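User: Hey, quick favor. My workstation is busy. Could you predict this chain's structure for me?
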Amino acid sequence: MAAPGVRLGTCSWSTRDWIGKVYSPATKATDYIAEYACRYSTVEIDATFYGVPRRATIEGWRDRTPETFVFSAKAPQTITHDKFMVGCERDISEFLTAMEILGPRLGPIVLQFPYYARSKNVTQGEFLKRLTPFLGTVPLADHMFVVEVRNKSWLDKRLFEVLRERGVALALIDHPWMHTPAHMMKLKGILTGPFAYIRWLGDRYGIEKLTKTWGEHVIDRQADIKSWVPAIKQILDKQIPVWGYFNSHYSGFAPGDVDVLSELLGLTGAEASSVAGGASP
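Assistant: No problem, here it is.
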């Protein structure tokens, strides 16, 4: 990892709602990623959560973006949800083989797990019993991995130690069920990897009562975004790079949220490009 810096982007890029705001009016869907990459240095691929993309699709993403652009990717839900990390060696191998088409422009890989209600009978102990051997089957030395959990009571020494021993980052998420950024940063050992990974998710069910289009802010999140600034600066002070992605469900318009945080961090214009470039893997 190069000199610590910040890369900010959105979770996915394929929405017509950004035409006229991020994309020019005549832009074809296949060219969204090219125009997106003119504005931001990274994106988190959401489509991979639903299955492994075709080779031609991945090559298209790679070929339509500059060499400095980096893709993070969510691991398929077959691994995290359906098989719950058991008997999925072939699944993770096929996924990584496909994503390696991106070459050095493949960024962190996110293992996103759902919230486990008590009715599901999945305890933290059961989760760790599956996570620990699973991480022994993936090539941790070859890729950057992130684990996201949505049970805030699981954010403790037991989880942190499993991740830290393997150099896997714990996703820091802005979600109604999780701690505030200030509270999270007070948890000893929460920075488990050589980089930090932040996801601004918001309340999907709440915001979809207000809108199901994603071209404008429908929730004022400026104060919430501002509350992350001290945490990000604290992480950078530790010489740890930061990757961060906004979901459309956070405020209704993810690119606008990226711009708000970039401005708050002083990462605008040429300075933004310079700092973001410093975070490349």
